[in-house]
Amino acid sequence: MSKFDFAPMPDAAGFFGEYGGQIIPPELKKIMDDINDAYEEIRQTPGFQNELAQLFADYVGRPSPIFHASRLSEQLGGAQIYLKREDLNHTGAHKINHCLGEALLAKHMGKTKVIAETGAGQHGVALATACALVGIPCEIHMGQVDIEKEHPNVTKMKILGCKLVPVTRGTATLKDAVDSAFEEYLKDPVNYIYAIGSVVGPHPFPKMVRDFQSIIGTEARQQFQEKHNQLPDYITACVGGGSNAMGMFTAFLEDKDVNIVGVEPSGKGLETDEHSATLTLGKPGEIHGMKCYVLETENGEPMPVHSIASGLDYPGVGPQHSYLKDLGRVQYESVTDEECLNAFMTLSRVEGIIPALESAHAVAWAIRVAPTLEKDQKILVNLSGRGDKDADYVADKLGL
Ligand SMILES: *Cc1c(COP(=O)(O)O)cnc(C)c1O
Is residue 117 flagged as an active site residue? Predict the structure, then answer.
């Protein structure tokens, strides 16, 4: 390709190259197409654009600032590290950006209930928040095991007024919560909407969630230009399903001089079974209604994946990431649990910013490469969320 031209992705059928699409029963295809039509219609209207822009400003607190981590950069002795502070958003992470978009769309379509699953409770809290604001009933399915582990998020969801459905079947974790939420959705998909929590699932969700999140990179690109009169040499973000990363990357895809790096969790090591490095070690396959890179066992089942950051342990990944990997436009690297923990502590102690364990993966990659670069080079890290939710776990683990 002589010129980068990614803006029109995906095509009308929801494909990014060979990835994406709608691998779902015909009845559901019609419903997904209706969601796509409604989205394409309202996204053009000034009414919707203004409403979302106003909420981003007055409710989420956008634009989020970019902070120069100068002490950290100096200690590393190489490139300058900058942080896009999505951790400062209302509810403490990037997820609120797409949850607001999805809740507004649901309301516009006259849906009577928003349904979703949640693992660690991050998507559940962001969605319950958006639904409270927009005034639409919300039902979150969560594994009983996770409910016991994630007490603060469970309490928040209850306070925010969503209906929390404990799931006790199977292993009572995320996978079972997905099945349970999806069954509820299938009872009335015309009137309900399933709010997917990342750039995954059948078309149009990878596109819609990306569009709602792309505010991150749009702001960052402009902020960088204004302050430095140039773009960063590197931009980086952690990749679970891939929504904060697509949010950061989209505005920079056509900037050839900007190196783009997605960071996956290699958990306890790529040589073990306990990682979640889908783009690094997976193969093209199918999961949750789309084609993408997938980590599978020998029998073709999704692999039970692991990461110290529960928001990153997904055996699939967004179809656009799969495509960008094949094109070579984005480079995908991985970081272990141990490197993640070190980055978590380093950022806390050198800059006074406690990052989410998910975001600490991107910080860890920056810490790894900064010393190999020149002092006038710039790395922009998407700090997708804050680490309050992880503080007790890390303190326990390190015996603090
Ligand atoms: C959920 C979450 C992620 C992972 O989701 P993506 O869709 O890959 O962005 C990353 N960071 C934080 C703080 C999260 O809550």
Answer: yes
- Beta carbons of 203 and 21 less than 8 angstroms apart: yes
> Could you confirm whether 296 is annotated as catalytic?
no
CB distance 23 to 202 below 8 Å: yes
Report how far residue 205's alpha carbon sits from residue 243's, in angstroms, rounded to the nearest whole number. Answer: 11
Q: What average pLDDT does this structure show over 75-104?
A: 98
Ligand 1 binding pocket (C-beta < 6 A) is: 93, 95, 122, 198, 238-244, 311-312, 356, 358-359, 384-385
Question: In sequence order, which residues have a C-beta less than 8 Å from that of residue 41 and are 6 or more positions away?
Answer: none
What's this model's pTM, rounded to 2 decimal places?
Answer: 0.96
Domain boundaries, the chain: 15-56+95-210, 61-92+214-398
Give distance in angstroms: CA of 241 to centre of ligand 1: 7
Choose the residue to mutate in 88, 312, 381 for probing ligand 1, maximizing ligand atoms within 8 Å of C-beta: 312
Q: Which of 117, 264, 333, 339 is catalytic?
A: 117
Task: Single out the catalytic residue among 64, 84, 95, 180.
Answer: 95
- pLDDT, one tens digit per residue, over 144-180 is 999 998 899 999 999 999 999 999 999 898 889 989 9
Q: Where are the alpha helices (DSSP H) in 239-300?
A: 243-249, 278-281
Domains 15-56+95-210 and 61-92+214-398 share a fold: yes
Write out pLDDT tens, residues 241-292. Answer: 999 999 999 999 999 999 999 999 999 999 999 999 999 999 999 999 999 9
**Residue 95: active-site member:** yes
The yes/no answer on whether domain 15-56+95-210 falls in CATH 3.40.50.1000 is no
Choose one of 64, 85, 95, 390 to mutate for the ligand 1 pocket test, by most ligand atoms within 8 angstroms of C-beta. Answer: 95
| Angle CA 197–278–124, to nearest 5 | 20
- What CATH architecture applies to the domain 61-92+214-398? 3-Layer(aba) Sandwich (3.40)
